[in-house]
Amino acid sequence: MRSQxxxxxxxxxxxxxxxxxxxxxxxxxxxxxxxxxxxYDDITSHDVIFWDTQxxxxxxRNRIKxxxxxxxxxxxxxxxxxxxxxxxxxxxxxxxxxxSDYLLDNDEPLKRFLDNIGFNFLRILGVENSNFKLNRLKGxxxxxxxxxxxxxxLKNYPDCFKYTHVLKHNIGDPILKxxxxxxxxxxxxxxxxxxxxxxPPFNSQNEIFKTHGREALLSCxxxxxxxxxxxxxxxxxxxxxxxxxxxxxxxSTLSDxxxxxxxxxxxxxxxxxxxxxxxxxxxxxxxxxxxxxVNLERAVKKALEFIGFKTLxxxxxxxxxxxxxxxxxxxFEIKGVSGSAGEKHASQLEKWVNEEHDDDLGLPKGIxxxxxxxxxxxxxxxxxxxxxxxxxxxEKRDHCLMTGHDLLQMLSLFMKGEMTKEEIAELLTxxxxxxxxx
Length: 438
Known about the structure:
This protein is of the alpha/beta class and 438 residues long. It has 13 helices and 17 strands.
C-alpha cells in the first residue's frame, strides 16, 4: 500500500507498502518525495492520504494576500485538487484528517474568498456544514471502539493522541472517544466507496511515540484500511441448492408471505408504470401552449388524432398538417410565436390551401393554429392573439383562426365527455375568423 501525507501545504509521498520514512506530525518523516498542493501533482494512484488542512488553509490565506496573478490561479488549483479527491474516493482511497476547528473556515477573509469561488473543504470530505459542529476540549486519554487496529495502537501508546476538539454531533461511524466522557474524537465517514477518517492530532510531547511509534502507526493504518476494503469487497458466499430441502422454524410461512407480497408489489409497480405513462401522455399535450416548431406540430397532430381525426399525406415542403375532419379536408399552418399572430402567417396558410387544391375535391379548409405569447402563462396573455389588421384577409378566405390553448381546451372537454368529435369537427370546419369555444 502507498500513502501520502499533506503537511505545510504539501503532499508528502510515502513510498513502499506503508513504510513511512518520516512523519512530521509529530514524528519526523525522512526521505519523502514532496508534492505541492498548489500544483498539478497527481494523488489519485495512492491508497491512503494524510491531510493537515490547517496548513493548506494557511497556504491559501498567504496567497490571497499575494499579487493578483497568484490570486487568480487559486480557483483553478482548488478545482483541480477537488477533482483529484473525487477520483481518489472513487478508487476506494482513505483520507486521514486531523480533527480541528480549521475545518470550519473560521477566518472571515478566507471564508469569504472560498465562498466566492464556490470551494468548501468539508464538501470535499463528504460532510454537510450544518452537521459538522465542534466543541473545544483538550486531553490525551482516548479509547478505541469497533476498531481492533486502534485498540492495539492505544494499548501500546496510550497517549499518542492529543485532542483539542470533540464532535458535537454523532456523524459517520465513530471509532475513537474520550476515555471517560464518551465524546467522539475520531470517526469514519464514507464518501462513495472511499472514506474520510477524522482522528485527533498526534501528541508531539509523547517522546516514546515520536521515537518508536512510526511502525505501530503504520501498522494500525494499514490494518484499518485493509479491514475497510475487505468490508467493501465482501461477497456473501452462495449456499448449495440442496440446503433448500431443510426448513427452519417458520421459514415456509415467511417464504409464502414474501412471495405473495412480491406478487402484490409487482402488480403495484405495473399500476404505477401505467399511471405514469398515462400522466406523461396528458402532460405532453401541454406543449400546445408553450412550444413551437416540430414540438408544437407533434402536439397538434397527436391531439387531433386522439379526438379521432384522420391524418392525410402531406408532400414535402408543403402544409404543416393535412387532416380529414368530418367531410372536409383541412390544411393547418402551425406556428409558435412570442407575441401575436401576423398576416404573414395567414398568407402562408393561403399558399398551402391553394397548393392542396384538388380538381375533384376543390380547395381544403384552411386553419391557422398559432401558439401566441408562448413564453407567458395563460393568465398573462391579455393581448389579442389575432390583430384586427389580419382579420379582413383571413375572413375573406374562410380561414379559421385558433390558438394552441383553444385546441388544448377542446381536447380536455373531449376527454371529459363534454364535447364530441362531431361537435369539434363542426366548430373547426364552420368557423370563419377567430374560433370561439362556448
